[in-house]
Each structure stands twice: as structure tokens, then as C-alpha cells.
Amino acid sequence: MNVAAGKAVNNPSANVSFPTDNSNQSKAARIIASLITLQNLNGPGKGCPAASTTFLVSYFTLKEFFIILSVIPAQSQLKAIQR
């Protein structure tokens, strides 16, 4: 329901997106959409706290992996410049 509406149904001020491709950005957006849905399950701010799920670990693991991948090309470019 939230995905079709583009917002948390039980908290219309909370926008969500649920992209379906397999990019890291889309995976992160889906995790955030899931967290928003759970945190607003019974009304605005009345739901499952994020700390009660494994979604935050998944999100930060994904973001850390994405940061590492973005740093590797930069290091290669730096070595090429130093040569």
C-alpha cells in the first residue's frame, strides 16, 4: 500500500519510494521505505522502532560497502596522477 501511495499510509507526511532495480541506492531506498512503514504501522510514529529490526544494520552495511566501492576508483586515479 505504501509503495503505491508514495507515502506511509498511516503517516501521509512521510514519503517513501521503492525502486525496483538492483542498484545499491535502490536497495538503500527500499530499506528506508521498510523502516518508515514499520515505524508508522499504527499511526504517525506509532509502530516498531528501527532499533528493533535488522534493517539499520543492513542499511549501514550497504552504505559502507557503497562508500568503499566509490573510494577504490579514486585511489586508482590518485596513483595514476602520482606517477
Give a description of the structure.
This protein has 83 residues and is mainly alpha-helical. The longest helix has 28 residues, at 55-82. Helix 2 (24-39) runs antiparallel to helix 3. Strands 1-2 form a two-stranded antiparallel sheet. The protein is built from 3 helices and 2 strands, in the order H-E-E-H-H. The N and C termini lie far apart (55 Å). It is flat and about 35 Å long.
> Based on CA inertia axes, which overall geometry fits?
flat
Number of structural units classed as domains: 1
- DSSP helix fraction: 55-70%
- On the 0 to 100 scale, the average pLDDT is 78
Report how far the terminal alpha carbons are from each other: 55 Å
Counting helices, strands and paired strands, the structural category is mainly alpha
Low-pLDDT stretches: 74-83
What fraction strand? Answer: 5-15%
Main sheet: strand order: 1-2
Rg calculated over all Cα atoms: 17 Å
In total, the number of strands is 2
Largest sheet: 2 strands, antiparallel
List keywords for this structure.
83 residues; flat; 3 helices; mainly alpha; two-stranded antiparallel ribbon
Topology:
Blueprint lengths: L1 H4 L1 E2 L2 E5 L8 H16 L15 H28 L1
Antiparallel strand pairs: 1-2
Helix pairs in contact: 2-3
Summarize the entry for a quick read:
By secondary structure, this protein is mainly alpha-helical.
